[in-house]
Amino acid sequence: MDKTTTSKPSKKKLERNKKIKESAEKIVIKEQTVHKRELDATTVQRLEKALEQSNTMQSFNLNKNTLKVKTQNLLSYSTNGGTFRVDQSLISFVQYIVESGRKEVAILDKNDIPILITDTEEFLENISSLYFEVINDYYIDYQKLRSSRKIEKVLEI
Amino acid sequence: MTAQRGIIILARDNENFSYAEIASMSAAYARKHLSKFDEICLITDQITYDKKHKVIEGSFDRIIIDDVVTENNLRFFKDTANSTNTGQFLNTNRSNVYELSPYEETLVIDADYIIMSDVLDQVWGSENDFMINYKYHDISGRGNTNIQYLDDFTIPMCWATVFYFKKSEYTENLFFMINHIKNNYSYYHQLYNCTGSMFRNDYAFSIAIHIMNGGIQANTPSLPIEYLNNSFDLDDIFRVNSDNDIIMFCAKRENRHEHVLGRFTNMDLHIMNKFAISRNIDQFWEAVS
């Protein structure tokens, strides 16, 4: 006969089992409390609101990123066979060229090809206008996007 | 005077939808927003032309019939994450465009590329013989905007959705190489560790550019647009507001069955969900006319 099945459990073992049982009960009680809290109406409402906000944030971020990419695509200026990415550093560099009195220079375009600019003042005027126009549109669209809490309003649905 | 600058769209109908109709609509958008070209031309096959000659003739200045052998090039056409169909991808004659183009300077666009800005007008008169984009932007924000590769261990991938070329020795050789890769695709497919089994123009172009550059990473000039705006076939069209304003359902990154709304104004869009375009084709026409 198997001794382990017939022998009585030791006092120590019984006490330990009792302790385990007690702590398990405590855990159950704790879980029940948490469950009760989750079902609390106010919490549910607040969670729903937060999740709604999460959806709005996703739409906001997507549309913000779209505006950024659109701006990058529009900030392109081509002349004499070259294409320039118009940014603050290009404008500053051309401003320096104009101020140093150079009328005609060769500068690198976005593909690193040297392009001859025959009228630097006109070139500066054109890239500056393009920059301010595009960034101003970006500013207006961005303000519209961030000032409205409802994405339906921004998208004019 | 003969036309020097032309926009070319290649389109052949398959069993799922009419590429010719989509191309006609796309041509109308190009005509609306671009002005520095001489002609818009369609390259199609006789069957498509016979079926859709009315809409084709009303939309294009020139039609070129290129009856190529119908290939077996099956691909999946998704209509959001909810539906997938298979059909023939009849776009393998893109590499013939150098021979077929009657223009000195050519801008090739996909039938599903909707031009809503004038940025591509800057290609004409470029110093570069050939321009194509490596960088793209997934409008739903699922992919990132960095250069993607044919495979993790191989070369960067360019997008043959839009490209510009002018007749020159370099471009003639480049297109000869693309044709060669197309004709020996299984070899190059394995050599460059390409994913999927379908013939992709993007892959053939990327491989040809790489070879033409001496087998090292090419510094190919990009188009004036910084990013190609891709709407993948998991997205759908919500509404076409005007000829430069579209609201899209953009599939969420974490759950592709759910969408958020995105508005796209004054920027070109490559809408890959052809079912969505076909469903909304009347809206597109209404907005552009």
Estimate percent helicity of chain A.
over 70%
Main pleated sheet of chain B: 6 strands, mixed
Report the C-alpha radius of gyration of chain B, rounded.
18 Å
Number of helices of chain A: 6
Order of strands across the widest beta sheet of chain B?
A: 3-2-1-6-10-8
Largest interface: A-B, 33 and 36 residues
For the secondary structure, the number of strands of chain B is: 15
String of helices and strands of chain B: EHEHEEEHEEEEEHHHEEEEEHH
Low-confidence stretches of chain B: none
Provide the spatial order of strands within the biggest beta sheet of chain A.
Answer: 1-2
Shape of chain A: elongated
SS-based class of chain B: alpha/beta
Head-to-tail CA distance between termini of chain A = 81 Å
- How much helicity do the residues of chain B have? 25-40%
Shape of chain B: globular
Number of strands of chain A: 4
Largest sheet of chain A: 2 strands, antiparallel
Notes on the protein architecture:
The complex is a heterodimer of chains A (157) and B (289). Chain A is built from six helices and four strands. With 157 residues, chain A is mainly alpha-helical. Chain A has a two-stranded antiparallel ribbon with strand order 1-2. A two-stranded antiparallel ribbon of chain A has the order 3-4. In chain A, a hairpin with a 5-residue loop joins strand 3 and strand 4. Chain A starts with a helix and ends with a helix. Chain B has helices spanning 19-33, 46-59, 97-100, 169-183, 185-191, 201-212, 274-279, 281-288; strands at residues 5-10, 39-44, 62-65, 74-78, 84-88, 105-109, 113-114, 130-133, 136-138, 159-166, 228-231, 236-242, 245-251, 259-265, 269-271. Chain B is α/β, with parallel strands linked by helices and 289 residues long. Chain B is globular and about 45 Å long. In chain B, the strands form four sheets. A six-stranded mixed beta sheet of chain B has the order 3-2-1-6-10-8, with helices on both faces. Chain B has a four-stranded mixed beta sheet with strand order 7-15-11-9. Chain B has a three-stranded antiparallel beta sheet with strand order 12-13-14. At the A-B interface, helix 3, strand 1, strand 2 and helix 6 of A face strand 12 and strand 14 of B.
